[in-house]
Amino acid sequence: MLSSPFFRLAVCLAIALPALAGQTGKRALIDEMLTLTNSQAIVETVVNQQQAALEQKLQQIVDSSDELKPYAKDLKPILADFETKTIDIIRKTLDWGTLRPQIVSIYEDVFTEEDLKGAIAFYRTPAGQAVLKKMPELMTATTKLVQDKLEIAMPQVNTLGVELRDKLNKLAAEKPKAN
User: Fold this and answer.
1) I want to staple 111 with a disulfide (CB 3.0 to 4.6 A). Which of 3, 84, 115, 167 is the partner?
2) What single-letter DSSP state applies at residue 27?
3) What is the DSSP string of 71-83?
4) What is the spatial distance between Cα 2 and Cα 67, in angstroms, rounded to a whole number?
């Protein structure tokens, strides 16, 4: 009886099913979390923000170039084509159908069931809903702050890069090549 294939199957199922049930419960919590946090809409917002940033950057390139400025009108279709192709790539890369399983996997790795239950309970409250509603604005402002700060730091970083290149070139010139 103990060596019966049915007995072995029953033992395997008895061991595996609770673990699978836990994963199913956790998956359901993750699904609820993704729904409550409007994750799909957030990804779509990111794509739209990237498009707006790209439009602005392309316009800045033309406006800041004395060589390109006179041809701004002629450049519009070329830039529009570039923008369309670039945004198409970004949309395909950030497609929710492709991203969702990967995001679910990350949530499974990072959050326990208890974490998810607590977060879901919070997001169901008026305070949680307020956080979710204001989060895109908060993230946009924070991202802009970080980008502005990095832009200020870049000349210093570039100077360090030039200094490093000069030191490396000097060292290379002083040392004979090893064969």
Assistant:
1) 115
2) H
3) GHHHHHHHHHHHH
4) 85
How far apart are the C-alpha atoms of 104 and 26, rounded to whole Å?
10
142: its two tokens: 């924070």
How far is the C-alpha of 30 from the C-alpha of 108, rounded, in Å? Answer: 8
Helices (H), the chain: 5-36, 39-63, 72-93, 96-110, 113-123, 126-174
The mean pLDDT value of the chain amounts to 86
Ramachandran region of residue 36, left (φ > 0), alpha (ψ -120 to 50) or beta?
Answer: alpha
pTM of the model: 0.64
Contact 71, 167 (CB under 8 A): no
In Å, the largest CA–CA distance within the chain is 89
Could you give phi then psi for residue 112, rounded to 5 degrees?
A: -85, 170
Paired tokens of 84: 């369309």
> What pLDDT, in 10s, does the model give residues 141-161?
998 899 899 999 999 999 999
- Distance from C-alpha of 92 to C-alpha of 107, rounded to nearest angstrom: 22
